[in-house]
Request: fold
Amino acid sequence: MTPVRALFAIGGAIAIAGLVACAATIYTYLSEPYALSSTSGLMVFYESPLVNSSDPGQLVQYAPFVFGAGPVVLVAGLATVLAAVALSAALWTGRASR
Reply:
């Protein structure tokens, strides 16, 4: 059962890494000095001269929140943990009753 325990530990480590990546992404986005908030007083849309734009008075908005690879890593870790549990159940043999 040692390989199953190793697979379970690896899956747990991958899931924790995905969770940390998601938390870091959220923290980075919210720690921006110009993060959108109902109390910040910042305009959602504003006019800005864009680089290489034919219309310099075009309305632009703040960058939307994007997770990145964090959720994919988290789901891969959880799938690995689930595979370890399924493999453990398939290989498990109970004590023989007398």
Observations:
- The chain has a mean pLDDT of 79.
- The longest helix spans residues 2-30.
